[in-house]
Amino acid sequence: MTAATITIQVNGESQTVNVGTTIANLLENLGHNPRYLAVEQNRCLVRRAEHAQCILQANDIIEIVTLVGGG
Questions:
Q1: pTM confidence score
Q2: Are 64 and 13 a contacting pair, CB within 8 Å?
Q3: Residue 17 falls inside a structural domain
Q4: Is residue 71 a part of any domain in this protein?
Q5: Is the residue at 26 inside a domain?
Q6: Distance (Å, whole) CA 17 – CA 25
Q7: What is the pLDDT along the chain (71 residues), one digit of tens a residue?
Q8: Which segments of the chain does DSSP mark as H helices, in order?
Q9: What's the CATH code of the domain at 34?
């Protein structure tokens, strides 16, 4: 039996994830280190401390922005 899935948008691209996937799971599956990212869910910034509790919903719009240092 396969897991139920939902469709979300990640940086403008449609992506299918399992029901119950959190932002932390998504970042891990995409190979991103959350330490160097900012994540928005439906135009609201999600604090890093909340990534593991923030469960994705169908049609969520996720924006992942890489933080860049410089001077």
A1: 0.89
A2: no
A3: yes
A4: no
A5: yes
A6: 10
A7: 668 999 999 999 999 999 999 999 999 999 999 988 999 999 999 999 999 999 999 999 999 998 777 66
A8: 23-30
A9: 3.10.20.30
